[in-house]
Amino acid sequence: MSTPLLAVWEAAASSPYQPSISKDSQFTVGAFLLLIALFLAGVFGLNLKFINLPLLGVPASLAFGFGAVYMICAVGVYV
């Protein structure tokens, strides 16, 4: 007798997970995102207008967040 969970497990065994960013290029992607974040945060810090928050601040924080996770994974610390 097969359970639904066992059927899903067996179906998943035939198609392994393939990440969108390969393990070999995680360091490059992470370093690039952190560099972009540093640049955008620097430009954001130079200007004092509120319009820059959606144009510079949000992309900088997203690039820093994803770049930090990619760099952590690239050096072998998994979160």
UniProtKB/TrEMBL annotation:
The chain crosses the membrane at residues 27-48, 55-78. The keyword Membrane applies. GO terms for biological process: protein N-linked glycosylation. GO terms for cellular component: oligosaccharyltransferase complex. This is Dolichyl-diphosphooligosaccharide-protein glycosyltransferase subunit OST5. InterPro entries: CorA_TM1_TM2 (IPR045863), TMEM258/Ost5 (IPR007915). Belongs to the OST5 family. It is found in: Membrane. The keyword Cell cycle does not apply. Subunit of the oligosaccharyl transferase (OST) complex that catalyzes the initial transfer of a defined glycan (Glc(3)Man(9)GlcNAc(2) in eukaryotes) from the lipid carrier dolichol-pyrophosphate to an asparagine residue within an Asn-X-Ser/Thr consensus motif in nascent polypeptide chains, the first step in protein N-glycosylation. N-glycosylation occurs cotranslationally and the complex associates with the Sec61 complex at the channel-forming translocon complex that mediates protein translocation across the endoplasmic reticulum (ER). All subunits are required for a maximal enzyme activity. Its main location: membrane. Pfam families: Ost5.
